[in-house]
Each structure stands twice: as structure tokens, then as C-alpha cells.
Design a protein that fits this description.
Helices cover about 25% and strands about 25% of the residues. It is of the alpha+beta class. This is Voltage-dependent calcium channel subunit alpha-2/delta-4.
Length: about 190
């Protein structure tokens, strides 16, 4: 891809996603919070006691001693070790990821790529009446160590707003929000 960009056949552009969801990287669990007050420890002990007592009643189906005809048996494979997986909280964010734009003025090209001791030849040709490009590459030469992969993973855009005054920060946030449209308004 680097050779195609050097030839001018493709141009690297940044694509932006303003409705992406990112993992919350600012969430920090405060493990010292229970040390501030003994009530947290007592509350945790009460929760533990009631949850274990409820699981004891459910496991042994003590409610079924009175009217066993109205209850359904639980699955045999259920055990307390089957806990729900923790799901990381996602928050809305803006992301950018790389894209490549084709220059339609170049219809055909060929070149050599030097990969250490060997050379790799390739031919690029636009498929007529379509937006497809046919790339034929000589496969007997490995260039993976010289040219790394092009990662298309999105990267979060972090805006630096702490150096602004509160009024200018609000103006920047208003600009980043969705644009006001007058198409749906009636006069």
C-alpha cells in the first residue's frame, strides 16, 4: 500500500465517527471507600448473609414442602459459580480511523518493491465501468517483515478543553454537537 500511495494511486485520509462507543478509560474504582466507615462492612455482611440464605432456600426448594405440584425443578447444572460476566461500561466518543481514497485519473500502473534480497512485482488496473481495482502481486517474495500491516482500528479522539475558559469550552462543545437544521421548522 505504501508503494501505491507513493505512486499517487491512493491517498490516505482520516474518516471520523462521531457516534462511536468507547470503553470508559476514566473509571477508577476506589478501594479505600469501605475503610471510611464501618457501615460499608456491615452492609456487605448483611448482603452476603441474605444472598446465601436465599440461595440455600432455592437450592433445597424448601418452599416445595407445602405445594410441590406448583413448582418446576431447577436445572441440574446450575451452581453458584455461574456468575454473570462483568460488562465494561461504554461511553459515547468520537473516533478516527484511516481510509484510502483512489485517484481515478490513474487507470493502470506497475512497479517493483525491493524486499531485502528479492524484488516483488505488482500490477494495478482499474476494472472498467466499476469502482473496483484489480491488483496482481508476485507471491514468491515475502515483504511482511519490511512493511508492517496497516491497522484499520479506530482511535479515540480526545479533545483538550481544560486550558479554555468555561465560556469558550461551552462554545467548542456547541460546535461539536449536531448542527442545527431549519428544514423541519415551519414558519
Amino acid at each position: 500500500m505504501a508503494a501505491l500511495m507513493k505512486m499517487g494511486m491512493f491517498k490516505k485520509v482520516s474518516l471520523f465517527d462521531y457516534q462511536a462507543m468507547c470503553k470508559n478509560s476514566h473509571h477508577h474504582a476506589n478501594s479505600a471507600r469501605p475503610l471510611l466507615s464501618p457501615f460499608y462492612v456491615m452492609l456487605a455482611m448483611i448482603r452476603w448473609f441474605f444472598s446465601n440464605a436465599l440461595m440455600f432456600l432455592l437450592d433445597f426448594n424448601l418452599c416445595g414442602l407445602w405445594h410441590s405440584d406448583y413448582f418446576v425443578d431447577a436445572k441440574a447444572g446450575y451452581h453458584m459459580s455461574h456468575k454473570q460476566k462483568k460488562v465494561e461500561a461504554l461511553q459515547p466518543c468520537d473516533t478516527a480511523y484511516p481510509g484510502f481514497m483512489y485517484d481515478p485519473s490513474i487507470r493502470e500502473a506497475n512497479s517493483l518493491i525491493k524486499c531485502g534480497r528479492c524484488q516483488k512485482m505488482f500490477v494495478v488496473q482499474q476494472v472498467p465501468d466499476s469502482n473496483l481495482v484489480l491488483i496482481v502481486i508476485q507471491a514468491d517474495c515475502d515483504c511482511s517483515r519490511q512493511f508492517g500491516p496497516i491497522l484499520l482500528e479506530p482511535k479515540e479522539i480526545k479533545y483538550i478543553l481544560h486550558s479554555c475558559s468555561p465560556s469558550s469550552r461551552q462554545n467548542i462543545q456547541d460546535l461539536l454537537s449536531s448542527p442545527q437544521s431549519s428544514e423541519g421548522q415551519q414558519d
